[in-house]
Structure formats: C-alpha cells, structure tokens
Amino acid sequence: MLNTRTVLFALGSLALTLALVLHSRTATGQAAQPTTEIKVDNFTFSPETLTVPANSTVTWTNKDDVPHVIASTDGLFRSKGLDTDDHYSFKFTKPGTYNYFCSIHPKMTGKIVVQ
Amino acid sequence: MTDHKKFVTTASGVIQHDHNHDGIDRRGFLKCMAWAGTGAVFVAEAGVLKSTALGAEVGSSRKHGNRLSFVQISDSHMGFNKPANPDVVGTLKAAVDKINALPDSPDFILHTGDITHLSTPEQFDTVDQILKSTNKEVFFVPGEHDVLNDDGAMFRERYFKNSKGSGWYSFDKNGAHFVGLVNVMNLKAGGLGNLGHEQLEWLEDDLRAVKHSTPVVVFAHIPLWTVYPQWGWGTDDGAQALSYLKKFGSVTVLNGHIHQTMQKVEGNVTFHTACSTAFPQPAPGKGEGPGPMKVPADQLRKVLGITDVNYVQRRHALALVDSSLA
Ligand SMILES: [Cu+2]
Description:
The complex is a heterodimer of chains A (115) and B (326).
Chain A: H1 4-31, E1 37-41, E2 44-46, E3 49-52, E4 56-62, E5 70-72, E6 87-92, E7 96-102, E8 109-114
Parallel strand pairs in A: 1-4, 3-8
Antiparallel strand pairs in A: 1-2, 4-6, 5-7, 7-8
Chain B: H1 26-33, E1 40-45, E2 48-53, E3 68-73, H2 88-101, E4 108-111, H3 121-132, E5 137-140, H4 153-159, E6 169-173, E7 176-180, H5 197-208, E8 216-219, H6 238-243, E9 251-255, E10 262-266, E11 269-273, H7 297-300
Parallel strand pairs in B: 3-4, 4-5, 7-8, 8-9, 9-11
Antiparallel strand pairs in B: 1-2, 1-3, 6-7, 10-11
Helix pairs in contact in B: 2-3
C-alpha cells in the first residue's frame, strides 16, 4: 500500500530508462551516417567532395596556421575569416550540388552534394 | 650618370642558374629562406633601379642628385603567433631599425600587403605605430589578409580615402611613376590573383599620360607574373596589365605574398618579390603547401639575404646590375 507512488515512480524510471536506451540507439544510428565535418588542412578541403542527405549541417574546421574563408561560388554562403581552429557551419536544405572555394586562396575548391 | 651603371653578373646574380629554364632564380630564394625581418632598399639613379639587402652598405648616392631611394617591406602579418614566428612585432621592429640605420635615408616606404594577419583594427594600429618611428611616408597595397571580412572597406578607410575602385592609385616621385594595384579581391574559384576589368582600364588610362622614358614602378601584393600557379602564386590578368607597360624603357614590378625573394627580367620589365618581415614560406613546390615554414629560431633573423636588382636597359636581354652603386 505504501506504494502506489513508489510503483509509479519505478514505472516512470523504467520508462525513462527505455527512452534513454531507445534514444541512444537512435544516436548510434546517426553516428553511422556520413560525416558532415570538413577539415581545412594544408590548403586543402578534406574530403574535397562531401555527399550528405538534405537538411544536413556541414561544419568546416580550419587546421592551418593561416586563415581561410569558406565561400560558395554562387554567393549562397560565406564565412568570416576563419583563424586556426575556428569553425563555420551551413545547413543545406535542398538537394543539389554546391561548389565552394576559399575566397582568399581560390585554388582551394570543394563540393557539397546534397541528396 | 652612365658611369654608375654596371652590367655585372655577381655571385648573387640573377638567373645565372636557370636550370629549369623558367627564368626563376632558385638560388635567390634559397638565400631568402633564411631571411626574415628585413626589407629591400631600392636606389635609382638616372632611371636605373637597383636594390640591396637592408643593412648592407648602400653607398652615398645622395651627392649625385636627382636620386630616388625607397624601401620595400612586405607581409608583416601582424597578429600571427604560430611557431614559424611567435614574435612578428619584434621582427617588424627589427626591419624598422634597419631602415632607420641606413646611412642613406630612403625617401619613403612601400608596403606590399598582408600588413595584418586577420584584418583587425588592432593589428593595423600596431603596424602603423611601429612604422611611425621611421618618420617616412608609407604607401600600402592590401594583401588578402587585409581584406578578410569587408572587401577592403576598413583598409581603404585607413589608407586611401580617395583611391579608385578597390583601392588602386598612382603617384609620381623624383621623376618615377608609381602604381599601386590591388589583386586580392573578387577572386574566382580555381583562379589566381585578379585585377579585374575596371582596374585594367584605369591602369591603361593612367599610363597614357606617362612619358616612355619615365621609370615606372608597379607594386601589388600577389606576384603579377606567374611564379607557381599550383600554389596560387600569380595573377590571372597580370599579363594584360604588363602589356600596357611594354612601351616604357624601365619597368620594375614589386610584389610580396610568397615570402621569399625571386627575380626575373623579361624585356624591359624587372620582376622582384620581397621577403616577409614575419615568416618564410617554402620554395615553390618544395613543401607540402604555401604555408608558414618553421626554421631554426637562430636562423629567423640572423641571416640577411641579398636582393640584387636587375634591370634592363632598352632591349638588352638580362642585363644585370651589381649591388654596388659607388
Ligand atoms: Cu584559404
């Protein structure tokens, strides 16, 4: 009798635990999907071509000792000057091919393919 | 004045060892790799430009009159603090000390860009403050690091309220015509440095009024000639700009960006790139990429290279000049 409350609490805990388990499974599933990180290192984007599902947020991280600027060739997006270890993110909502380059080192080019 | 001209190929001469037949003096940049914290001094007499390393004897040319002498410094990258040089303030100050110690004080200074590393007002302020102690007029052109976030608006506001377009301009000094060009903006994906149609038209027009016997000095950040396109060391429409300079007897093109000296003579045009006051970069294709190169700390400042300048008189090919002007 004590313990409708305790029982309820226990049930609640169980539900919460289940939810957490389910959630972490989902998280694991997401981690198995293609990466959305692009490393800017030694004046190169890697990977140079990145394929992602629609609504992915892509993040560039500058690992060089000099700044870079991430800019799409058609003007859709453009970062500020990224110093060493700075990040820039952009969310790609629509399928298509997005060409970009470093606007101060234009030999550096890359491509995001959104499916 | 002709007796001051010497056509000598010195030990540090230019294009003597052009094994690759591309007109690039590889010995020149090997020297420069151990040479930071310096600039180059240019002295012109009778329309002939020559240069010498900062700190080397320039000789007293002032007595000859009609003299033009100036210093080129480049790529001070104020704000850079990585292992290749944790003290860019110190090396810029060292360059200034050398300028101030010149026995024959130069008339003014050209800074060929990358004044700052990240285009912040504080970084510009620091450089201005340090250069102030030269008591010299300084003429700037922007590097790509100076126009990171605003297409050069701050740069123009500081240095060129009255300049044209993205910041180009010209002026006359002691009988020579100087042209400062901007080739670090509106760059195209996959391309090199870029001057653009509007600037080229202005240049052609600007040069129209200049006598063909007038020495012309063109300065810009990225080399106007193709040094190493794989690393972006060149200017897409540089050849177009150079075509307007063909009619002049003496043309000197001064650039920075590649953080090493390189020299080439082509017809009437002498090409020269300056060292950085901040950090060296590898010789073209000799490193993984065109980034800062770390050298032993005791090498960074100690070894001063030589920037010999070459010039061509009339149509004589590859005429070289010794650094001694005496
Ligand atoms: Cu870049």
